[in-house]
Amino acid sequence: MKASRGRILKGIAGIAALLLAWQVSVPLVGLEPYLYPSPLRVWAAFVDLMQKGILPVYLVDSLGRYAAGTACGVVLGVGLGILIGIDATASRILGPFISFMFAIVEVAWIPIFVIWWGYGLKTILMVIAYVSFFPVLYNTIVGMRTVPAAMVNAARSLGAGRLEVLTEVMIPAALPNIITGFRVGSGFAFRGMIFAEIIAAKTGVGYLIFEGATNQQTDRTMVGMFVIGLTWLFIDHVYVKPVEQVTIERWRTVTRADERE
């Protein structure tokens, strides 16, 4: 507990030192405020966005898009990953196509999505689902294929059917890899969301960054950048880590950092 409190205090001290150095550097650099705003100016922009209700609305929009898109990508990635991991025929048929699609980055798809669905929610959700899908898929496949054969054979020798072997042996054994994919995919999805909002949205934190840069309101752009960082910390602690924690408590398949120390 004391060690954790000490790390938090050191982190706060580091951030405070960085902000102080930034504030001191502003007059030394001598650039126009729209090029290099001070921390105080960025704070004023944050207060203004909050008072006008712009930032809360944008943040809620971004979080809703992120949750929906990531859920789609994770569910599809886990489901297809399990199928490919246990079925050699599915692996041979779908493997080359998936590898081909994985090589096409989401940036290349955004213009196509815009043509199909226009600027808005559908395009953003597709981008988020796309970038979260592949890390979950590949990690799920690896997890399913690396389940020890001895575990599967032992379950079968005890009378377990195919479905029981899958749900009680293979999937629990593959969970460390699935959770890794979930974690990586969640991070990719967040970045994909920001990029998609810059191009295809009229609200959201990504759009706030784009709007600020377009109007030479660098202080607003920096507000958006800070909100992105803080939002991901929130998502990681409230959304991603609890899933990992549930996995630990149910199957004890993931080792927590505090258990390793």
Summarize the structure.
85% of the residues lie in helices and 0% in strands. The chain contains eleven helices and no strands.
Can you give a write-up of this model?
The chain has 261 residues and is mainly alpha-helical. α3 (54-86) runs antiparallel to α8 (162-200), α5 packs across α8 (162-200) and α8 (162-200) runs parallel beside α9. The chain is elongated and about 75 Å long. It has helices spanning 2-29, 39-51, 54-86, 88-103, 106-117, 121-145, 149-157, 162-200, 205-214, 218-251, 257-260. The longest helix is centred in the C-terminal third of the chain and has 39 residues, at 162-200. The chain has two domains: 1-30; 38-260, MetI-like fold (Orthogonal Bundle). The protein has eleven helices and no strands.
Write the layout of secondary structure elements.
Layout (H helix, E strand, L loop, with lengths): L1 H28 L9 H13 L2 H33 L1 H16 L2 H12 L3 H25 L3 H9 L4 H39 L4 H10 L3 H34 L5 H4 L1
Oligomerization category of the chains in this entry: single chain
Task: Give the N-terminus to C-terminus distance in angstroms.
Answer: 13 Å
Q: Percent helix among the residues?
A: over 70%
Q: pLDDT under 50 segments (min length 5)?
A: 253-261
Q: Structural class per helix/strand content?
A: mainly alpha
In CATH, what is the class of the largest domain?
A: Mainly Alpha
| Beta-strand residue percentage | under 5%
CATH fold node name of the largest domain: MetI-like fold
| Relevant CATH superfamily of the largest domain | MetI-like
CATH architect. name of the largest domain:
Orthogonal Bundle
The Rg value, from CA coordinates, equals 23 Å
Count of extended strands: 0
Total domain count: 2
Major β-sheet annotation? none
Run of helices and strands:
HHHHHHHHHHH
| Mean of residue pLDDT values | 83
Number of helices: 11
**Large-scale geometry:** elongated
